[in-house]
Specification:
This protein has a single domain, classed as 3-Layer(aba) Sandwich (Rossmann fold), CATH 3.40.50. The chain has twelve helices and ten strands. It has helices at about 1-10, 60-70, 90-100, 115-125, 135-150, 165-175, 195-210, 220-225, 260-265, 270-275, 280-285, 300-305; strands at about 20-30, 35-45, 50-55, 75-80, 85, 100-105, 180-185, 215-220, 230-235, 235-245. The strands form two sheets. It has a six-stranded mixed sheet, sandwiched between helices. Strand 7, helix 7 (about 195-210) and strand 8 (about 215-220) form a beta-alpha-beta unit. Helix 4 packs across helix 5 (about 135-150). Bound molecules: adenosine-5'-diphosphate and magnesium ion. Magnesium ion (MG) binds near residues 61 and 62.
């Protein structure tokens, strides 16, 4: 236990894969029969990659997501996330690592219905180790993440007042708020029409352009073409793993109302990791009252300014 904790705090070598999976099995036993949901897979994902995990229904995609996202444990095999062996950690320790390192986006958004966008985005901060954040710090961080997905103006809208695409963008903002090592999205466009899907994929591409690692699970061949790499599953096994030729670029994804600070706060883990308000950019120290509408701050697109870069 103490060893695992120590390993988690050691600096992570960026040359190492963010995700390192070896001979991983997840076997469900029901009565006399067993289902090999994951049947001996090995996989590396490096920092800054955009991987689409593809496969038909029942091929093991969600099982993989649950293990990679530290929600579930493998039956056997190794899963190392940023240098930390996860497969033998207990529930509490996995929860800690999950809150710190994983940003989840789900098919059905999973937003609280009667809660506004800003509060939804703030929520993971209430459960994170970064408990020293003041209410104002949390609000400011959440506001920046909303700006990053182009929804700063809609901060006080509840889910019912947002379209499906907007709800998914709120969910993406929520997934960013803890500055995770990876964004894990399970069929994020499954409930969206094709135009709205592209809008949402554009946000993932823009975040990936900034150096975010994205693992996107989909059964949709068209959606997979927006990734850099496709890993294909069948019956719990990886049957193909190859780069995407002629990768598609989705229109949009960077927003005029996203202040450069939005990217700073999200992409700079040093600042984000420090709990004190003093460690946050200037704007956070002068955080607005809840009632203030976070207005447009800058016109330059943050991604264009920041350029490609890793999460150092
Ligand atoms: P996908 O996300 O690709 O549709 P899943 O990972 O959900 O596939 O499921 C892979 C296989 O594991 C399927 O055969 C499914 O029925 C089985 N499975 C998934 N979860 C469970 C569970 N909790 N108990 C028993 N079998 C399960
Ligand atoms: Mg699934």
């Amino acid at each position: 236990m103490a060893r695992a904790r120590k390993a988690a705090e050691a600096p992570f070598d960026p040359a190492q894969p963010v995700i390192r999976i070896r001979d991983l099995y997840r076997i469900y036993r029901m009565g006399g029969s067993e289902v090999r949901a994951l049947d001996g897979i090995s996989l590396d994902v490096h920092r800054g990659e955009f991987v689409a995990v593809m496969g038909p229904s029942g091929s093991g995609k969600s099982t993989l997501m649950n293990i990679v996202g530290c929600l579930d444990r493998p039956t056997s095999g190794s899963y190392v996330l940023e240098g930390v062996e996860i497969s033998n950690l207990d529930r509490d320790r996995r929860a800690e690592i999950r809150n710190d390192k994983i940003g989840f986006v789900f098919q059905n958004f999973n937003l609280l219905a009667r809660t506004n966008a800003l509060e939804n985005v703030e929520l993971p901060l209430l459960y994170s180790a970064k408990t020293n954040l003041t209410d104002a710090d949390r609000r400011e961080r959440a506001r920046r993440c909303l700006a990053r997905v182009g929804l700063a103006e809609r901060w006080d809208h509840t889910s019912a007042q947002l379209s499906g695409g907007q709800q998914q963008r709120v969910a993406i903002a929520r997934s960013l708020v803890n500055d995770p090592a990876i964004l894990l999205a399970d069929e994020p466009t499954g409930n969206l029409d094709s135009r709205t899907s592209e809008e949402v994929i554009a946000v993932f591409q823009a975040l990936n352009d900034e150096g975010r690692t994205v693992v996107l699970i989909t059964h949709d061949t068209d959606i997979a073409q927006f990734a850099q790499r496709i890993v294909a599953f069948r019956d719990g096994k990886i049957i193909a793993d190859h780069p995407v030729e002629d990768r598609r670029r989705a229109a949009g994804g960077t927003f005029a109302d996203a202040p450069p600070a939005a990217v700073e706060a999200v992409a700079a883990p040093q600042a984000a990791a420090l709990p004190q308000a003093a460690a946050l950019p200037q704007a956070a120290a002068q955080a607005p009252e809840t009632t203030r509408t976070p207005g447009p701050i800058a016109v330059e697109t943050a991604a264009a300014q920041a350029g490609p870069r890793g999460r150092s």
